[in-house]
Specification:
The chain is of the alpha+beta class. It has 12 helices and 9 strands. The chain starts with a helix and ends in a 12-residue tail after the last helix.
């Protein structure tokens, strides 16, 4: 069997294994492929992009409609054509989520924790749940029912997040460090109380088992069409994004040297760098905006995973 045929077979198996859902997959494409080009697209382009994944026109239109109702997208009608643009809220949300996917701060940890303490007496249960959900999504661990901890997020970032929800007056934001006990075991015990790292490690191990065969085949075959590259990149980030949003991405001082998340990041970086030139050719050829051809990618896009070489895609 030719390398390209084996690769296509591997992708089909991967799509069946991942059990893709249209709304979530479209969010991945918007964040990974559309936002870096400005965030504007014709609905027909999105339908073409999603067709290889088995998503029909009705599913795409329904998903885009829902995202518009939720204020991720805004719509503009030009003649008989519908164009969509990521809203300010949508762009900010993608920036927050995908920053954790492509970037990682490897600078030494200063030992300080950012704590968010909720006012249990003055905060309604539904507001507490909103805060808990948002902080958990941002990587906070649950130190107690009303105390949430983060190792690297700054108090200013927490303040901005709570202000966006109009709940800034319902929490105290502190910087703190563990003074006693002073041994590393006490710190690691605190980490284990805040996050279920064993479960996250299991999910990373499954990710590695799923995508390593694809990487070996991709690296050794040397045959992949632009459409295949786009599909691989989308499936990779779709699954890796799901894991990184559950991973608190703790400093290296707080995780084991054989942490599965490190291997998963290296594998994702290798695949992403390998397929991005072809994927960008496919996106540029498929997507049309209200102003015509798709704009070039942003400089931030080219810095993903430590730097991309897109010369082959130009």
């Amino acid at each position: 069997m030719a390398g390209s045929d084996r690769l296509e077979g591997q992708i089909e198996d991967l799509m069946a294994q991942l059990k893709l859902r249209a709304p979530s997959l479209i969010v991945t494409v918007l964040g990974d492929s559309i936002a870096p080009h400005g965030g504007n697209f014709w609905i027909g382009s999105m339908i073409d992009l999603m067709a290889p994944f088995g998503l029909n026109e009705r599913l795409v239109r329904t998903s885009i409609f829902r995202l518009t109702k939720e204020n991720w997208l805004s719509a503009t009608q030009v003649g008989r054509r519908s164009f969509y643009n990521l809203t300010t809220r949508g762009l900010r949300r993608f920036e927050e989520a995908f920053h954790r996917v492509y970037e990682m701060d490897d600078s030494p940890w200063d030992g300080e924790w950012t704590l968010a303490m909720l006012d249990a007496g003055a905060t309604a249960p539904e507001d507490r749940e909103r805060i808990r959900r948002e902080l958990t999504w941002a990587g906070f661990g649950t130190a107690s029912n009303f105390v949430f901890a983060h190792a690297t997020m700054t108090p200013a970032d927490v303040r901005e997040k709570l202000a966006d929800m109009d709940l800034l007056d319902h929490a105290l934001i502190l910087r703190s460090r563990i003074e006693w006990p002073t041994d590393d075991e006490a710190t690691h015990a605190f980490v284990r109380r805040c996050w279920d790292l064993d479960q996250i490690a299991e999910q990373y191990a499954e990710f590695l088992e799923t995508f390593r065969p694809l990487w070996h085949l991709l690296r050794d075959s040397g045959e992949a069409t632009p459409e295949t590259c786009f599909m691989i990149r989308t499936l990779l980030i779709h699954e890796y994004r799901r894991l990184t949003l559950r991973d608190p991405q703790l400093p290296t001082e707080l995780i084991s040297t054989d942490w599965e998340g490190t291997a998963a990041r290296t594998l994702s970086r290798n695949i992403y760098r390998h397929v991005s030139p072809g994927a960008e050719r496919h996106i540029q050829g498929c997507v049309e905006t209200m102003d015509g051809p798709l704009p070039s990618v942003s400089a931030r896009f080219q810095a993903r995973f430590g730097g991309l070489d897109l010369t082959a895609a130009l």
